[in-house]
Amino acid sequence: MQHHCDIGLIGLAVMGQNLVLNMSDHGYKVAVYNRTTSKVDDFLANAAQGHTNIFPAYSIKELIDCLASPRKVMLMVKAGEVVDKFIGQLLPYLEAGDVIIDGGNSLFTDTNRRVEELGKRGILFVGTGVSGGEEGARKGPSIMPGGNAKAWPLVKEILQAIAAKVDDGSPCCDWVGDAGSGHYVKMVHNGIEYGDMQMISESYDLLYSGLDLSHDELYKIYDQWNQGELDSYLIEITRDIMGFKDENQEVLLTKILDKAGQKGTGKWTGINSLELGIPVTLIAEAVYARSLSALKEERIAASKILKGPSKQITEPKEVVIEELRQGLYAAKIVSYAQGYMLMREAAKTYAWHLNYGGIAQMWRGGCIIRSAFLGKIKEAYTKNPNLYNLLLDPFFATAIEKSLTGWRNTVSRAALKGIPMPAISAALAFYDGYRSAVLPANLIQAQRDYFGAHTYERIDRAPGEFFHTNWSGEGGEVSSTTYEL
Fold it and tell me: How far is CA 268 from CA 275, 287, 301, in A?
């Protein structure tokens, strides 16, 4: 079976199928395989009907035999053990210089390992984030490849061809860096996505529970927001959700159970932020908010015991809505600032050379967090590649300043009315902490030294000189070591 296909793809779930169709649309010959081989026939008979560039394979060997050399195989399968199993099945049929591309949401440390292990055998491994969901995969996703740099010239053309394009035609795909950096950037992307979704849901809660607005009114509000600074895919689909009616012409959203699921990338972002000592507080709160939502039965029981104020907001609706918009916009800026702080620290820790403006470019189209202000992030890092926090860029500093009063009023209003706003309020707390030249951490250091002799530095002595005090008069003079991030 010699079709000399440009690429093979394993895994014909929704994302895999749509990527294959996308590749076919761009003139590439694609061989396809699925562990349940009946899905291959179903795909060719239905979704891929009429696509003459798509060829079936019913075994791993058949798939490899279809490919032109150097062979390129893309895995669109469940992250973790399944990826390793398929790599093991591929290896007997591959040669040095062939490429394996993992397009799933793999943990970046797994990609680090696979790049190293396969590199010893001459196999070039690429771990790439693919964002955009079903529609993005079909029409043009954001693609974030990293791994063995020798693979990039071999896969660049096809990945950039199928990726989303921005207004000037630039693809939302470029080489991210070595090892697991591509999957790392996708992990941070997903963390920011968690934060955006949580903040939008918090805005919905305040508008719906606090102002008692109808979903028709909410549709108009999110539509208006999508015309301005908040222009983004997630605001756009939120608008559409507000207007969606079920078969009984009733708002479907009100019938959906309030238990949010998650697949792990937001959690991974939070865990890694703790490992690197970077305060990605907004994303962490968004993950915890989903965890809290899952405690539905406990929440129902608690609602009958734990009391709070009336959620009804009596202030002028126009004022509340505009201040909420300002708060959502400011918190969104903080979310991206925290994400970029994490990527910058990861680059230092893992010796990656990340192009921060290029990452914003990759996120401008196709992906779930695509939004108008990503162009401003690209401009910020193009102007100053060494910018160490997005909040310090003049555009974003000014934007925060203009929104600050509305942001504070929104968080205060929610707190006074008992409307939970964990992500938007966490963003404000971070902002106030970051802009503070002095924080009460001196008391924490004193406490640590009091009970554990962990020592402290003094502002009137040289940096790096540590002191211990016998606070109670009963402790000894021996000190412990201090923990450094």
Answer: 10, 10, 31
